[in-house]
Amino acid sequence: MAATQFGQQVARIRADNGMEFQTTSLRSFYDDHGIILQTSCTDTPQQNGVVERKHHHLLETARALRFRANLPLQFWGECVLTATYLINRLPTKVLQNRTPYEVLLGRQPPYDHLRVFGCLAYGKDTHKGLSKFGERGRRSVFVGYPASQKGYRLFDLVTRTFYTSRDVHFVEGSFPYHTPTSSSPSPMLSASAPVVDDELVANNEDHGPSIEATVQQPPAASPADLNKSASPSLGECPSPVAPVEQPVHEVRRSLRSRQVPRRLDSYDVELPPSNVPYPMSNFVCYTGFSPRHRSFLAAVSSQSEPSSYREAVRYEAWRVAMQREIDALVGNGTWTLVSLPPGKRVVASKWVYKIKYTPDGNIERYKARLVAKGFTQTEGIDYEDTFAPVAKLVSVRCLLAVAAVRGWAVHQLDVDNAFLHGDLQEEVYMQIPPGFAAPGDTRVCRLHKSIYGLKQASRNWYAKFTTTLTGLGFQRSNADYSLFVRRSHGTYVVALIYVDDVILAGDDSVFIQQVKDTLHRQFGIKNLGPLKYFLGIEVARSRAGIALSQRKYTLDLLRDSGFSGSRPSVFPIEKHHSLTRSDESSVRVSAEEAAAYRRLVGRLQYLTVTRPDIVYAVNILSRYVHAPTVAHVAGAERVLLYLKRAPGQGILLPSSSSLQFTAYCDADWGGCQSTRRSTSGYFVTLGGAPVSWRTKKQSVVARSSAEAEYRAMASTVSEVIWVRALLGDLGVRLTSPTVLYCDNQAALHIAANPVFHERTKHVEMDCYFVRDHVASHEIMPRKISSQAQLADLFTKGLAGDRFHELLSKLGICNLHASVCGGV
């Protein structure tokens, strides 16, 4: 560029030690053109100060642009490019109050084309086939200036795509991504007759003071005190030091009128009025909950957790939490500081932060956890066996469904520093934790105990914890190795383990307390009270049953994706969608957008834990994560718009149930347009409570609809047999066969009659599998009309009354349904 456009030969390039500047192809380019590459010393940015300062300048400007327009983080690239464009056209003292544009080109830059970044803009719609009275403008956001075209770069708010247009109408006082503000009190804190109340808490329980009065900050510790608390093995590691800044948890607001300081008079701080037509408050309501549960939801929703050490070290509470974690690790003899032996590899480490809550919604503690980056370990050297079971989410739903019917108390326990209790057999070396390494100290931590993140840590902890449970009289379930059951004189106590989170349920309160005391003595386990929040799932219990939802997870997903103010969609996927594998005619997305698509689909996958209504749509989207197109991205965004309609929607496990076990199976035929493979779907209920569901593309092409349906039946039978075994361990006696509803008569005949012919012999194994369980009276296939088939929702896209009809029969509930009416 410099040589071609301006006649200036590049002699030297100065950079840091980034490998992107030292690739083989780049070095060949340098040699061919006689360019010398100069790199700065390691951790010495001052040797490349001009570039480092300009990076800082660019990021400051880009942040200001993004914050002013309130754009989602996904627009950071447009913010940086626009910041570069503007800086090159602004005078600077370094160039004697001239602009870089003027110095380079010898003329003043034009300014008449500049517009307010992030404002509302309407680009000309150039698509053919528009009706005479159709809209001619595309509602968009202005996001910059293209480098190779004379126009404006815009982001279409409807199609969610970028495009460039010359003919644009700007509304510079309006910003589409500004969130609504209101002076009215939050609906979460408004008074109303409670609908959800905890049946396991005494009616006369004192709910305690307000949130802000109960948040206790750990006392600030001086560096000297922190060093005293550490053992000699880590005594030389300095404590993290940063300006003291407490996390803010204020709820009360002063009624005194406030004036803007005069020193800010010269700044334009006026924000446009909110023009978001679909605010989130129209779709999430909290008035149906008891004051205590509203307090819990308010605390969970309002707090944010740092994502990096640099962010956490600014707050004293997190610094104290990190020091507490170091003290616990050193006190348990987790490591000793040694020099790294020759030929040994070192494992890096990082901090992970979590806020723990009490059942009342108050902050119980700030938890900082040191985690090893186990992905750098080498099999056979740093670890051997790694498998450790964790609770299946189907097991969680089954346990809670049984607990709701039988009135079991359900408690939640948390093991503090669980993995430290597992013994480490291998020789593993880890870097000194971030923020605790003394300057110039090159030693590493020789680990003696397991630590979070190591590949073998979960297995070591599981072995230790299960030994203790079996010593208390628990027996491990053969259906789910994370489930432990104790039966004694007609009473049941169940423990379900998910790493260091434990659900303890049963009808023997004396023994449950004995288990808590034993685990506390041996592992320092913490009693979190009745189950409220487990693995991102919010649990609300009332006389009607137990409701599960992922409200906060959904709201965070919508906020991070920039869809909090968007108009919601009625259905998660079109009825006759055309999502297929990309080909030559498909519009591929950039590598950055493809990575964002994969992250989004992964987050949607976890949301299906309590949202069976999006399972089919997410399954379709997950088939194309390797090479997504614009159509696939639009499909994922449609799911987000559907979630916006009811963020608090979940499932209800009713307390009035006979625990009758029923299953539904269905399949389309050759529904995948790319491979012509069929899609199986099943839905399993326990007394009307949804406990298991799935959508899966079949691994082979079915030659007939009967074959497709029979393969779906075989996968459903496999799930039913497993759940029956699980329910047996939970004390549910299933004396009659499980009714399996199928709407294909041919598949039912194959299951009931031992007949093979040319059209079924290639599915012989599935035939024998299903017939064996039918003959043993575990399964009873029955015909059901296609109109009553609940599994229909898991095999195809539905719309209209059919979609809502099936949704009403799946056990879906929405405790957060807004009284505002939504759209």
UniProtKB/TrEMBL annotation:
Biological-process GO terms, alphabetical: DNA integration
PANTHER family from the UniProt entry: DNAK FAMILY PROTEIN (PTHR11439:SF498), GAG-POL-RELATED RETROTRANSPOSON (PTHR11439)
Lineage: superkingdom: Eukaryota
Chain intervals for the UniProt region annotation (Disordered): 205-259
First and last residue of the signal peptide: none
InterPro entries registered for this protein in UniProt: DNA/RNA_pol_sf, Integrase_cat-core, RNaseH-like_sf, RNaseH_sf, RVT_2, SH3_retrovirus
Upper lineage: Eukaryota, Viridiplantae, Streptophyta, Embryophyta, Tracheophyta
GO function term, MF aspect, one: nucleic acid binding
Name of this chain's protein: Integrase catalytic domain-containing protein
Boundaries of every Integrase catalytic domain copy: 1-108
Gene3D superfamilies reported in the protein's UniProt record: Ribonuclease H-like superfamily/Ribonuclease H
CDD domains in the cross-refs: RNase_HI_RT_Ty1 (cd09272)
